[in-house]
Design goal:
Layout: H1 5-15, H2 21-60, E1 66-70, H3 78-86, E2 91-105, E3 110-118, E4 133-136, E5 147-151, H4 152-158, E6 165-175, E7 178-192, H5 197-200, E8 203-207, H6 208-214, E9 222-227, H7 233-244, E10 248-252, H8 253-256, H9 258-296, H10 298-306, H11 311-355, H12 376-402, H13 406-409
Parallel strand pairs: 3-8, 5-7
Antiparallel strand pairs: 1-9, 1-10, 2-3, 2-6, 2-9, 4-7, 5-8, 6-7
C-alpha cells in the first residue's frame, strides 16, 4: 500500500471528483489568491529594490561614501589624514576636495550653486562622475586654466555650453561692511548629467587648486572616501574619528542622507506588510474550503476511524491536503513573480511603445524607466512566509476533522 497513508488519502481527496463543486471552487480561489498575492509581492518588492538601487547609485556616484572634514575652514595637514584613511582596510580610495557656495552668471541668467574643487586624476578613486559626462572631459580641469564643469540643468539655466564663458562670484573673508565678493571668469569645459536634480541643477566642478586660490584657502575642505562595503560606512567613520582626533569630523553616507534612505526603507516595509496581509488572507481562505470539506467528508472520516485510523492520522490527512493546495499556489506564484520581476522593464517598455503613453516622462522624472532588482533573499522570505500562513490555515480544520465521532457521523447513513 502507498505509504504514508495520510499523504495517499490527502492526494486522493485533491484528485477525486467531489459532489460539492463549491468546495472545489473555494479551493481554486484560495490557490489563485496565493498565486496573485505572491506574484504581486515579489514584483513590487523587486521594483522598489530597483528604485532604491538606482537612487543610491546616482547619489553615491556624486557624493562620497564617507568623508573627512576639518572643524576649521580648511585642512592644513590633509596629507596625514589621507594616509591614515588609506590604511583602513575598508577604504578603497581617497581624494581631497574643496566645497563652497558661489553665484554663477551666464549668457541667459544667473544662479547660485555649490562649487566643488577636485583633482581630476584622483576623483575616479571615489566617484564615477567621469562616466556621467555628456559633453567635454573632466581631464580638462587643469590647474590655472580656470575651467568649470556644470550640471546639465545648470548649464541650460545659465544658457552656456562647452567653450562659453561665465562669471563666478565667490564670498571671501569678512570686513566691517560684511563679506567681500570676488569675481572670476571661468570657461565651461564640460557638462555632466547625474540623473539627480540636486546635482544637475546645482553643482559646478572646478580644479581643486583653482578653488583654493579663488577662496583663499590653505588646503582642501576635506577628504572623500570610497569603501569596499557601503554598509560599513558608519563603522569606518567611527574608527577614523577615533584615530584622527577632535580636529576632524568623519561622516558616512548614511548619516548625510539618512532621512532620504530611511523614507525609502519605511516605504518598502509598509508595502511589504500590506501585500503580506493579502497573501495571509489568501492563505486563510484555505480554512473555509477545508472546513467545508471536513463537513462533506464526515462519513468518510467516520469509516476511517472505525477501521483504526487515529485522530492524529485524520488530522494529518487534512493538513497534508491543505498544504498541497498551498504549496501548488506558492510554487506557481513564485515562478510567476520571479518571471515578472525579471521582465518588468521590458514589459513596461513594450506597453509604452504600444500605447504611446510614457509612465515616467523624462521631462518630469529623472528615472524615466521602471527598474527592477530581484533579490533571492526576498523571494525566500516571501515563500517562507506564505508557507507558514498556509500551514497555520490547515490546523483548525484538521483538528476539527480529528474530533469527529464515528457513531454520530454514521447515525443516519
Amino acid at each position: 500500500m502507498f505509504r504514508p497513508l495520510e499523504l495517499f488519502i490527502g492526494i486522493r481527496y485533491i484528485r477525486a471528483k467531489r459532489r460539492n463543486h463549491f468546495i472545489s471552487f473555494i479551493s481554486v480561489v484560495s490557490m489563485l489568491g496565493l498565486i496573485i498575492g505572491i506574484t504581486a509581492l515579489i514584483t513590487v518588492i523587486s521594483v522598489m529594490n530597483g528604485f532604491d538601487f538606482e537612487l543610491r547609485s546616482r547619489i553615491l556616484g556624486m557624493v562620497s561614501q564617507a568623508s573627512i572634514t576639518s572643524v576649521g575652514n580648511s585642512m592644513s595637514n590633509w596629507q596625514q589624514a589621507l594616509a591614515i584613511a588609506e590604511r583602513n582596510p575598508h577604504v578603497e580610495g581617497a581624494a581631497p576636495y574643496v566645497e563652497r557656495e558661489a553665484y554663477l552668471s551666464g549668457n541667459a541668467a544667473s544662479q547660485g550653486a555649490i562649487v566643488r574643487g577636485i583633482l581630476p586624476d584622483q576623483e575616479p578613486k571615489v566617484a564615477d562622475i567621469g562616466s556621467k559626462m555628456i559633453a567635454g572631459n573632466l581631464s580638462a580641469l587643469t590647474p590655472g586654466s580656470w575651467g568649470i564643469v556644470l550640471g546639465r540643468d545648470l548649464a541650460l539655466t545659465l544658457g552656456v555650453n562647452v567653450g562659453d564663458k561665465l562669471v563666478l562670484t565667490a564670498s571671501i573673508g569678512a570686513s566691517p561692511i560684511g563679506a567681500l565678493p570676488r569675481l572670476r571668469r571661468f570657461t565651461v569645459v564640460g557638462i555632466f548629467e547625474a540623473g539627480m536634480q540636486e546635482y544637475d541643477s546645482g553643482l559646478a566642478i572646478v580644479n581643486m587648486h583653482d578653488a583654493e586660490k579663488l577662496y583663499q584657502m590653505s588646503g582642501p575642505s576635506g577628504i572623500r572616501l570610497k569603501l569596499d562595503d557601503l554598509f560599513v560606512a558608519n563603522k569606518v567613520a567611527t574608527t577614523l574619528a577615533d584615530k584622527l582626533g577632535d580636529a576632524y569630523r568623519v561622516q558616512g553616507w548614511m548619516q548625510q542622507h539618512a532621512n532620504f534612505f530611511k523614507a525609502i526603507a519605511m516605504e518598502k516595509i509598509v508595502m511589504f506588510i500590506i501585500l503580506s496581509l493579502i497573501v495571509a488572507v489568501a492563505a486563510f481562505n484555505l480554512v473555509s474550503s477545508l472546513v467545508m470539506l471536513v463537513t462533506d467528508k464526515q462519513s468518510d472520516i467516520a469509516i476511517l476511524r472505525t477501521l483504526g485510523a487515529t485522530p492524529r492520522s485524520i488530522m494529518g490527512v487534512f493538513m497534508i491536503q491543505g498544504m498541497l493546495i498551498g504549496l501548488m499556489g506558492i510554487l506557481i506564484g513564485t515562478v510567476c513573480g520571479v518571471a515578472l520581476a525579471i521582465n518588468v522593464p521590458a514589459i513596461v517598455d513594450g506597453i509604452q511603445n504600444l500605447t504611446g503613453y510614457q509612465f515616467l516622462p523624462e521631462s518630469v522624472y529623472y528615472i524615466n524607466n521602471v527598474p527592477s532588482k530581484l533579490e533571492w533573499s526576498n523571494v525566500g522570505w516571501i515563500t517562507g512566509m506564505a508557507f507558514v500562513f498556509s500551514l497555520l490555515a490547515t490546523i483548525y480544520p484538521a483538528w476539527r476533522a480529528s474530533r469527529t465521532q464515528p457513531a454520530e457521523a454514521l447515525r443516519y447513513e
